[in-house]
Design a protein that fits this description.
Blueprint (H helix, E strand, L loop, with lengths): L3 H17 L7 H14 L9 E6 L5 H16 L2 E6 L2 H19 L5 E3 L9 H8 L5 H5 L6 H15 L16 H7 L11 H4 L2 H11 L2 E5 H9 L12 E5 L5 H8 L2 E4 L1 H20 L6 H26 L11 E3 L7 H33 L5 H29 L10 E7 L5 E7 L4 H9 L4 E6 L9 H7 L8 E5 L5 H4 E5 L11 H13 L4 E5 L3 H11 L7 E3 L5 H13 L4 E5 L16 E4 L10 H12 L4 H18 L10 E5 L3 H4 L1 H8 L5 E4 L1
Parallel strand pairs: 1-10, 1-11, 2-4, 2-5, 3-4, 5-10, 12-17, 12-18, 13-15, 13-16, 14-15, 16-17
Antiparallel strand pairs: 6-9, 7-8, 8-9
Amino acid sequence: MLSANVKNQIRTIYKAISTALPNFRSRREQNYIVAEISKTLAGEYDKHRRIIVVEAGTGIGKSLAYILGTIPLALASKKKVCIATATVALQEQLLHKDLPFFLQHSGLDFSFGLVKGRQRYVCLAKLEMLIGGDDGTQMAMWQTKPDQSQIALLQKLQKDFHEKRWNGERDTLGTPLPDHLWNQICCDKHSCHRQLANHRHCPFHKAREDIDEWDVLIANHSLLFADLELGGGVILPEPDELYYIIDEAHHLPVVARDFSSAQATLRGAIDWLEKIAKTSAKLQNQLKSNHIIAPAQAMQDHISELCSLLSGVAHYCDTQATAFDNPENRIRFEHGKLPESLVIKAENLASASNDALKQFNKMLVLLNEAIKDGELPKHQSEQLLSETGFMLQRLENLHKLWKMTAKADNPKGAPMARWVEQLPGKQSDYLFNVSPIEVGFMLESLLWEKAAGVVLCSATLRALNNFNHFTHQVGLSINDGSRYLAMDSPFDFQQNATLFIPKMRCEPTDDNYTQELAEQIVTLLEGESATLVLFASYWQMEKVAELVRPKINTELLIQGEDSRQQLLTKHKQRCDDGKVSIIFGTGSFSEGLDLPGDYLTNLIITKLPFAVPTSPVEQAHAEYVKAKGGNPFLQLTIPDASRKLIQSCGRLLRKEEDYGRITILDRRLITKRYGKSLLDSLPPFRQVIE
């Protein structure tokens, strides 16, 4: 139950914040969300299911609502709060604006910080080795032969770190480092050992010490899953000690699915397995213990077996030239079923990679003991740890792929999506992939049943005015004890925005549609100063731009021709200077784009955002729904399009006083049966339909 003390505390903080925030307007919707979150997490509705799903429309102030609904309760209950977001922009807003403001005016004493993955920190040992000394270890560590400018760059990094001008995080680098260079010096879980003197004071471990002290942790969705996959409580605190706030929760199903997938090449894997064989021989030569002999020799046998099996699968793929003869150079195995000739190979690869992993881990235990006992010189131990860490990561990934590929699908659930792609190159190689289609069961066991409490929120979680699609995706149910809350935006949509659907000769499936789009857009630009046009594909955007440019006197700002940030800066500058500005963007501009006031008054949506199931996972999902007697278009495509259309329309009104027009150049909203349900799920704009 929510104690009277915490209730009073929340009310007092709300009053203090309302006084401190300029132009603050008390909102019934925001108050209600705060109360429902705190009651749910306190177990007032269901002691065993402290989960609430909140859709909060733009303008309600959901960040403040969930901060106020969780932090006072967490501090009183001796719990911590983890806020996981999908975008860097929201993390920065929480870190630099929302939480400092709340700390200042709440009267509460709490600490907070941003949790980053290991890969965001430099490994000082790797940095030292790549810069190199006279012991010959330098060249062995570089993946490709470095030029002097790269070594000079790394020397400067090392100097800046030791002279305290840089804290070792990638995000605080003065000059960004190319990915291929950063990947060679970043921290990784396999070669970063705290027992080594060189690693004790490294930036990553220093950051981890801070995490233990924080009451509120900000993370991204990927880091959240990295922790959950390890069983929870490894990177973040234990799940039963945490209240999770998953903001931008509509991204959760895709992030979870991608995190649970695996892929590996065939001939490429054979190449690096041969390198592991050399590393194993090196360990056998350099470690004095007799215990290394048995695992090192067993390792050689397992590697030979793995290479032979992978060659067999590659040979099978070589014989399937006609099956790969499609635009994607891909074979997707229908219903996730492998051909009989591959089933046994996959099972053998799962078994052999598991055996190799066991032996390699035995060798690593012996290596760590030797380092602990001081049997190896520092440079030698550092090099071996980096080398073996890199190999172990690849071996674990190979095992994950073949274990998932070989595992029999549960007859009660969706099968795995399994496919293989032919890679371009002199010698043909193949990339094997496996991914779950549905992740709800996994989220149930990893998070929902373990967490102290969970808040899932976003401005767009419903599709077609209900939560059904989202709950199915994330493994919740309307009747499982979880709470559901949908609070509409307080904006006056009727007064402030017009939804215009003009007459058109063509529908999007017509060959002349692109030509008509260009004509309509030129007309719709007349008299407008700030326009955003959203396209369903890059191809169509570029074609329309080609047709529109000669007919207008204004420069078009087109996604891809500049970075997103540069485009928005140019657009705002043009608006500030009283000039006309027009942005052309694709689907990624329909979310997280904030152009308040006069920065956007004319929004044009060219086409309903129907996702064509081009990815093998989407194709497999549609196939599964069909096999169960369902309709993939109605069950998957329409709900997804509904949510995306709401998001696209949400670009126009960002603040209460904003105004403008939304034009949708897709008559299927009127001509098709599903159009009415898509229109009805939009905010209540004033509608003008020709």
